[in-house]
Amino acid sequence: MEFNPPLLTSSQRTLSLFPLPLHFPLEIRTAGEVEFPPPPKRHAPPLQQALNTIESTLVAMGELAADKHVKYILAVEKRKDSFESAVLEHLRMNGAYWGLTTLDLLDKRDVVDSNEIIEWILKCQHESGGFAGNIGHDPHILYTLSAIQVLALFDKLNVLDVDKVSTYIAGLQNEDGSFSGDIWGEVDTRFSYIAICGLSILKCLDKINVERAVNYIISCRNVDGGFGCTPGGESHAGQIFCCVAALAITGALHYVDKDLLGWWLCERQVKSGGLNGRPEKLPDDTENGGISDRPDDAVDIFHTYFGVAGKTVAA
Fold first, then answer.
1. DSSP code string of the chain
2. Is the pLDDT of residue 102 over 90?
């Protein structure tokens, strides 16, 4: 007897390539010309059960070694002749934001000289209005947001030529609503968030086409409820944060399928209790202070910031 397999849509073929958990939503969702159906009814676990889980996780984490983390951050800032410092020199502006925000979360911001930091930040600004990752490097939207955020942290936005900085950011928007990171044209939904966040802090959102920016972000929504870096890109927790945050700032959260996205995010927790950024990845998670991405890995300033921030939010 001849077997005639059923015709499958492209979405169904894609989803058939990997095993799905039993509780994967039954309907197949596609973007583009097919309209998203309403989300299915699913019952969330009781609030108290969720709170108990958070409480037990915090107990297991133990007390945050705050003093050691402060010493680690200050040591990173002073260690300028190491291999680590050399390879990270071009993104020092981001490192300043991560480190200083961590100190602020630990209520230790006064251990640094704010005037010295502000002076260094202004030396990183280009004629275009954008900021570089360090003195002598090229400007990029990533470093520009970090510069804005650090100045806001110290309540020193008044030192900025707001019109010049906001014009630089707005000039990176493309016709389709997306944003490039710099003059070389790389497009990523991270840059959409960065532009929207930075302009929001500067109170200059009216300098961009917000409607097109929102529509581009929506075009990056996937069948699993998540968002990718570009249309059709794999869903990733980092991209999801950027897209959801950008939609929140612009008052467009109603475009997010909360049930489906919530399911996807819950699936990111692994047996160790950690969370990964996408399926099949290891979890991201003291003697010398600092926090690593997962147990037994080397610590770094990036994960120290997010580790302390996560603990602060959960507490």
1. ----PPP--HHHHHHTTSPPPTTS-SS----TTSPPPPPPP-PPPPHHHHHHHHHHHHHHH----HHHHHHHHHHHHH--SSHHHHHTGGGHHHHHHHHHHHHHHTT-GGGS-HHHHHHHHHHTB-TTS-BBSSTTSPB-HHHHHHHHHHHHHTT-GGGS-HHHHHHHHHTTB-TTS-BBSSTT--B-HHHHHHHHHHHHHTT-GGGS-HHHHHHHHHHTB-TTS-B-SSTTPPP-HHHHHHHHHHHHHTT-GGGS-HHHHHHHHHTTB-TTS-B-SSTTPPPB---S--B-SSTTSPPBHHHHHHHHHHHHHH-
2. no
Q: Using one digit for the tens of pLDDT, what is the confidence trace for 53-64?
A: 545 544 444 455
Tens-place pLDDT, residues 246-274: 999 999 999 999 999 989 888 877 776 66
CA distance 195 to 175: 15
Whether 21 has a pLDDT exceeding 50, the answer reads no
For residues 218-246, give the mean pLDDT.
94
More confident of the two residues 269 and 237: 237
Euclidean distance between CA atoms 225 and 268, whole angstroms:
13
